[in-house]
Amino acid sequence: xxxxxxxxxxxxxxxxxxxxxxxxxxxxxxxxxxxxxxxxxxxxxxxxxxxxxxxxxxxxxxxxxxxxxxxxxxxxxxxxxxxxxxxxxxxxxxxxxxxxxxxxxxxxxxxxxxxxxxxxxxxxxxxxxxxxxxxxxxxxxxxxxxxxxxxxxxxxxxxxxxxxxxxxxxxxxxxxxxxxxxxxxxxxxxxxxxxxxxxxxxxxxxxxxxxxxxxxxxxxxxxxxxxxxxxxxxxxxxxxxxxxxxxxxxxxxxxxxxxxxxxxxxxxxxxxxxxxxxxxxxxxxxxxxxxxxxxxxxxxxxxxxxxxxxxxxxxxxxxxxxxxxxxxxxxxxxxxxxxxxxxxxxxxxxxxxxxxxxxxxxxxxxxxxxxxxxxxxxxxxxxxxxxxxxxxxxxxxxxxxxxxxxxxxxxxxxxxxxxxxxxxxxxxxxxxxxxxxxxxxxxxxxxxxxxxxxxxxxxxxxxxxxxxxxxxxxxxxxxxxxxxxxxxxxxxxxxxxxxxxxxxxxxxxxxxxxxxxxxxxxxxxxxxxxxxxxxxxxxxxxxxxxxxxxxxxxxxxxxxxxxxxxxxxxxxxxxxxxxxxxxxxxxxxxxxxxxxxxxxxxxxxxxxxxxxxxxxxxxxxxxxxxxxxxxxxxxxxxxxxxxxxxxxxxxxxx
Length: 654
Hints:
This protein is of the alpha/beta class. Helices cover 22% and strands 22% of the residues.
């Protein structure tokens, strides 16, 4: 069956002409490690956009089908369907030598990879394309990036949502239209390389039970153990290592697999050994005891202080603008975090958060208050009334030395606009600094007849072209300056959404950027080694934090805030760059926060480092009483990721 015709012609030149395999899966849950595929559909397209193949089937997962109210697939409907292993060969033949395309492609790719691994087969995919990531680059004037919303925008008919085959047919129409827009804007496709994945990557990782107690610090010489102490073990032991760990955890200790300056004690029978843990303990002055002493102390572990428990209340808070002046800056490190400067990130204390939170106009917001609803981003009259003449516009700055470009983007935000990092369908104006005329994007900007201004326009801008609200009627994300804060709403009913913090940058840069996340306790330290999420460990064992790759210039941290343990008080999201490049050469980094993978973005910030930084703190999400808040940080450091991680209690080499 061929696709419903659309009014779009598929580009057939260069990167836009490929063999595509469009995929949709319906699943029993959201965890690819744990849950199973219930139905799958694949449609293949040739470089000319013509459909070349189609396959769909229900599957017997051998387990509970999960949320029937979402996908409608009951156990009765699935009974008698083939298993994935029985159809894996046919699916693999359709995927072979094609680019896998899906809406939220990492989700579908991960589920297929796990199903192929269970069938003892390799998933024959070397590249994938996410239509979510591609549309985030195009940035069409839609209220969100859901499949149905994009289908309506691009004029693609949709018959049955959450039906794998119909969703795939809709996806094909969306792909055609989005490729056309990407070609019009000369956007590079966010293709993700998919190297072969070993079966070890699919093995279950049982989550570590979070320690219920705060770290009381180091063990004093001859003193007792206290609940919450961070304990590491290295070298051979007389008792089995799992037995020692189990007894320590039962006593309320926090067992770690690496040593940092926040380790309370190292247990080893070979204190002078050359193990990385022993070397680090000696360097940091961490107390060292032997196994016999440790076992004796386990008999009398003193009571610790439990982590505070906060219960979220249903609320619909709205974004708040930061107060002017020093209060908008990220608060300085305090306590243990201060001792590690500059390796640690600046921590926003509750006091700092109260200072930064303000109502429009600069009046501080009392604890628990809800600010007024902000005007839509493209509401021109409201912008003039508040002295922000560029309210609702999106401005791309080209050219200039780094300091000039940073100053221009800062001024853009002050005037109420959002500072763009790429040419997209939402860009309304371009500011040209010295050398900007040589930017590769100028050819497209000229063809699109976008207004181009010099730097003087930012002193006293005038807008003579049509009001952008005529084209973009939906309210857009709150624009956060550096230090800006926004509350993350809690629904009155139903499950709390995952929050997706997406990080993007200009695609054509030198150097590789890695986005990371640290899940921190009250002492600004990770509670366990698994609380550091990075490219080598992209998911916590419980799945509460995941690192997702949308393309070479986009990575996302997905957070299930409602499922985080009480010990987790703050999540710090950062970026690090490999090689000799710095964030000064990379340019601006954009972050956006949205409920769900395709939800309407709540907030957006464009952050500039200075010139020599190799790591950049992007955002932090922290508890504020019963709520969670997001702060745009924008603090850079010259040191690398290893030093940043050590400041939070993780030894990346250990």
